[in-house]
Every structure is written in structure tokens, then in C-alpha cells.
Write a structure and sequence with these properties.
Order of helices and strands: HHHHH
Distance between the termini: 42 Å
Number of domains: 2
Structural class: mainly alpha
Radius of gyration: 17 Å
Number of strands: 0
Number of helices: 5
Length: about 120
């Protein structure tokens, strides 16, 4: 919540599957669609996927990368490994932020990837 008392990203519609009053299923994609940024259209899951791909390149352990995205660890590992990876997640997100800032300044090498989407 912000000082005005409302949510920065309020739900756009009531959904009985979600209990929270903020961040509905399509809230963030709708907010992103409202911003003119001069790039090809993308969604929040695209940003999450990009972060996960680059986390490997940044040397982030798979468990920490999964937890950064709030994913559960797979199968039996998820049952026995109850570590929260807080320190590792913080380091991973700091590395990701550093990379994004470097790219924004023009210092990073950015390579266009082929689109994985099927063409119509």
C-alpha cells in the first residue's frame, strides 16, 4: 500500500480464486500494456523467463533462481530442502539489477534472440 491508503496495483476485477485485494491475474500485464516503451510487445512472464535465463549466466544456483521466482523446488528436493535461500536470492537479484543497469547505460552486450513464438 502507498501513503494514500490504496494499492499501487489494485485488482482490475474480483476473482474468487485469489484472496488478495491487489495484483490480480491480469493486473501487471494491464499496467505494462499502458506504458509506451517503444519495444516489441511482451508480458510479465516474459520478464520472469528472461531473468531465469540470465540467472544461469550470472552463476546463480538453480535453487536460488527458482526461489527468486517464487517457484517450489521440484519433487523430493522440495520436500526435504526447506532452506529459504534468502541470502542467495538477495545476491542473485543484486546481480540481476547490476546487469540491467549496465545494459541500460549501454555498457552491456545485448544480443537479440530468435523469437520462440510460432509465426502465423
Amino acid at each position: 500500500m502507498y501513503e494514500g491508503g490504496g494499492f499501487v496495483f489494485p485488482k482490475r476485477r474480483r476473482d474468487h480464486r485469489q484472496r488478495a485485494l491487489h495484483g490480480g491475474i491480469d493486473t501487471f500485464n494491464a499496467a505494462l500494456a499502458a506504458v509506451e516503451y517503444g519495444l516489441e510487445s511482451f508480458t510479465i512472464p516474459d520478464l520472469r523467463r528472461t531473468m531465469r535465463i540470465y540467472s544461469s549466466a550470472l552463476g546463480v544456483r538453480p535453487e536460488a533462481a527458482a526461489r527468486c521466482l517464487n517457484h517450489k523446488l521440484p519433487s523430493i528436493q522440495g520436500v526435504y530442502n526447506t532452506h529459504d535461500y534468502f541470502v542467495e536470492r538477495r545476491a542473485a537479484l543484486e546481480s540481476w539489477t547490476t546487469l540491467l543497469l549496465e545494459i541500460e547505460r549501454g555498457g552491456g552486450k545485448v544480443t537479440a534472440l530468435k523469437s520462440g513464438r510460432a509465426s502465423a
